[in-house]
Amino acid sequence: MCSLLSFSFRSKVQCNNPLVADVWASITRIVTDKTGTLTENKMIPKIQVIYAKDGDKWTMKDVTSIQDLQDTDLENHILAIMSTTGMEPEEISIASCVKAFYELGTTTDTEIHYGDTETLIVHHAFGFVRELLAKPTLFSNKRTGKYYMGVQAGGDDFWKGKTHVTPHEDTLVKLTLWDTQTPVNTLEIRGAPRLWSHGVKEITKEEAETIISKWNDCESIHDDVSRKEAQLKVLREAVARVPLISRTFMVDSYRKGVKAGIQKLYKEGKQVFICTGDAVSAAKTIAENLDFPTGLQAMDLHGGSEEALITSLRNAIRMQTVIEPPSPASTRGILKLDIDSHSRVLEQGEPRLQSLSIFVDQACMELFRSIQEREGGYKGEAFELFFKLIEARKAHKPHK
């Protein structure tokens, strides 16, 4: 894509190959990853808070004011974040938050070295679990001998129970606090937003041993589907009612030229597909930042059931097709429109295509995959409607 368009996503490329024009003319769709392709893949933390009790109410405290907190189990907050933090760009950004915790921790009366690996013992790191949209870890505090389940999650689906995990009773209050008391909406965001959160709950040594034993038993199940279902059941029980303890809002800046490049693709009549693991809300923010059609020119596909998916696909096709209204008498029955600087005459009642953004969430993708497996390929009404939706532009090239 960089070569064909002669603008830079990764480096300055100028292509003088005369065959490019012929190849470019035949391309109808551009599919791109987001992180590291459209963005710098460098997460910059903007807001970092922990939750603490103020009497009988929950409050949020910026990490810079941690030393003022008396009721927060700071050590376990730090260990929970440490236990789930790896080397992904988001996690490196979160680590800067943990570093601030270290620095503040050394000012307390305790003699704990929060960065000392002897304090944290990870008994089992389960890795990122797509079905949970979370990264669970079972760890213990060597100094106290206590055991914990730590969780790192992106977005809010895990905390709201949308991944079939029972949320803690205080979670809704904490999420509401974040929504109403953080200045996220006032920030000038020039990049893809990311919101990652952490949680931790204390468990007994016996509960920890039971979790690991059940997980190990799952490994003996030979059938892949059955083993995965059994493992998910173990994890959903293990992370149920984990209290939310901290939130980190960060931004991954867009690469120079990306916005102009995508607009150039539009003008060339190309469809653009962006693949991202972000929540749908974050994907919509990204779409708005990059000038994708939004508002009445945007629609979610629903994957709750095959019937809901088919209905939303039909609605999307109807939204994309606009029937021109009767024109004034002075135009003698025709309507002249300017589309991407190309004038064309449309007859009364002739359909035209409007630009449309379609958002496809994880549930929808999983449903498409199950239909594909059931039908033995990209068959069935859902796929027929989806292909009709994305092929419409190809069939009406003048409308770009």
SSE string, helix = H, strand = E?
Answer: HHEEEHHEEEHEHHEHEHEHEEEEEHH
How many structural domains can be distinguished in the coordinates?
3
What is the global morphology? globular
What is the share of helical residues?
25-40%
Unreliable spans: 1-13, 106-116, 323-351, 395-400
- What percentage of the residues does DSSP assign to strands (E)? 25-35%
Which sequence of strands runs across the widest sheet? 3-2-8-7-6-5-4
Instruction: Calculate the mean pLDDT score and round it.
Output: 76
How would you describe what is shown here?
The structure is a single chain. By secondary structure, this protein is α+β, with helices and mostly antiparallel strands. It folds into three domains: 76 residues, Rossmann fold, CATH 3.40.50.1000; 209 residues, 3-Layer(aba) Sandwich (Calcium-transporting ATPase, cytoplasmic domain N), CATH 3.40.1110; 102 residues, no CATH class. It contains twelve helices and 15 strands. Helix 3 runs antiparallel to helix 4. It is globular and about 70 Å long.
